[in-house]
Specification:
Blueprint: H1 2-20, E1 55-64, E2 70-78, E3 84-86, E4 91-98, E5 104-108, E6 113-115, E7 120-126, E8 138-143, E9 158-161, E10 171-179, E11 198-200, E12 205-212, E13 219-221, E14 225-232, H2 236-239, E15 243-246, E16 250-252, E17 257-266, E18 274-282, E19 297-305
Parallel strand pairs: 11-19
Antiparallel strand pairs: 1-2, 2-7, 3-6, 4-5, 4-8, 8-9, 10-12, 12-17, 13-16, 14-15, 14-18, 18-19
C-alpha cells in the first residue's frame, strides 16, 4: 500500500514539474502493468478408458420362453470399472447369422437401468425363420452392436454360437399302431396288453410315433412336415409306400421327447391273419433340421387278427 501511494505522489510531482516547465521532456516512468485476469475455459474432460464400463456376453442358452418361442438367453456382464446407463430402447444385442436361415434380430431393452461394475443381467433375443425348413447357421451375438454405449473395450463384445449347438437330433425312434376298432384308453399305461400293434381285418389304424432328442439344440417339426415314410409295408400292395405328414407341428427341447399321433394313417387292413414286419423312416425328406439322420429308422411287427364282431 505504501509503495502504491509513493508511486501516485511521484506521478503527481512529475506532472506538476513538467507542467510548469514544458521544455523539459518527461522521463519515462515505468508504471506497473495491469494484467487482465485469465479467462475461464470450459471443456469436456474425457474420462480415461480405464474408468469406463465394459460389456461382455458371458453365457448363451437357447431356450423356449413362456410363449413357446425359441430364444437365445444372453447373460451380459459389466466387467469395466464404471457403471453404464442403458436407456430404454437401446439396441443391447443382436445375432448375425452365417450360413443359415434362422435369424436372431436386434433386441432392445424395454426399460432403462444402470449396470454397475461386476453385475450382470439376462435378456432373451428371439429367433425366427425356423419354419418352413429353417436351417440354423453359426451365430455371432454382439452386445452393444451399434456402439451406443461408451465402453473401455469394444473388441470383446462378440460371442460365437456354433451351428452345431442349435441342432437337435431325432433318436430312439419308436413306432406302433393302434387299431381304430379297439381304441386303447390312452398312452398313460392303460392300454390293454396285446392290443398295441394288433389289427383286426378290415379296421384302420392310427400310427403313434415317439422319439427323444439327445442333441444340444431343439428339434423343430413344422406344421405339415413329412414326419414318417414307409420303407417296407405289408400294405404296400394296396396303398403303396406311404408318407405321413404331421399337421400340427411340435418343438422338442434338448434332452426331451415327444409322442405324436397320426390319426387314421392306415387304411383298412386287407391281409391274411398273421404277423408282418413294418419298417419306417423318420424325417425322410430331411426337412427337420437335426445333427444326424443315421438313427431315424424304426420297425414294428404288426399282428393281424380275424375280425371280431
Amino acid at each position: 500500500m505504501k509503495t502504491e501511494i509513493c508511486e501516485i505522489l511521484l506521478c503527481i510531482t512529475v506532472l506538476m514539474v513538467f507542467s510548469l516547465n514544458p521544455a523539459v521532456a518527461a522521463p519515462s516512468v515505468p508504471i506497473r502493468a495491469q494484467v487482465a485476469p485469465s479467462p475461464l475455459f470450459k471443456r469436456e474432460l474425457a474420462l480415461p478408458q480405464a474408468s469406463l464400463a465394459d460389456l461382455v456376453i458371458t453365457n448363451i442358452a437357447v431356450i423356449q420362453d413362456g410363449t413357446g418361442a425359441i430364444v437365445a438367453q444372453l447373460q451380459i456382464k459389466n466387467i469395466g470399472q464404471a457403471p453404464v446407463t442403458i436407456p430404454v430402447g437401446t439396441v443391447i444385442a443382436r445375432g448375425d447369422v452365417q450360413g443359415g436361415s434362422v435369424t436372431f434380430p436386434s433386441k432392445t431393452v424395454d426399460y432403462g437401468f444402470a449396470l454397475f461394475p461386476g453385475t450382470s443381467f439376462s435378456i432373451g433375443v428371439p429367433s425366427s425363420g425356423w419354419c418352413p425348413g429353417g436351417k440354423p447357421g453359426s451365430v455371432t451375438f454382439r452386445v452393444n452392436p451399434d456402439n451406443a454405449l461408451a465402453e473401455s473395450d469394444k473388441s470383446n463384445n462378440a460371442f460365437v454360437l456354433p451351428a452345431s449347438s442349435l441342432y437337435g437330433d431325432i433318436s430312439s425312434a419308436v413306432v406302433w399302431l393302434e387299431s381304430q376298432r379297439f381304441p386303447p384308453v390312452g398312452i398313460s399305461g392303460l392300454i390293454e396288453p396285446g392290443m398295441r400293434n394288433t389289427l383286426p381285418l378290415g379296421a384302420g389304424a392310427d400310427i403313434i410315433v415317439g422319439f427323444t432328442n439327445p442333441g444340444p439344440g431343439f428339434v423343430v417339426v413344422c406344421p405339415g412336415t413329412t414326419l414318417l415314410r414307409d420303407v417296407q409295408s405289408p400294405l404296400s400292395g394296396v396303398y403303396g409306400l406311404k408318407s405321413y405328414k404331421f399337421p400340427a407341428g411340435t418343438v422338442v427341447r434338448p434332452g426331451g421327447g415327444t409322442t405324436v399321433k397320426l390319426q387314421a394313417a392306415v387304411g383298412a387292413v386287407v391281409l391274411n391273419t398273421g404277423s408282418y414286419p413294418w419298417h419306417f423312416l423318420l424325417n425322410p425328406e430331411g426337412t427337420i433340421v437335426e445333427s444326424s439322420v443315421a438313427n431315424n429308422a424304426a420297425s414294428v411287427t404288426v399282428r393281424v387278427t380275424p375280425q371280431i364282431q
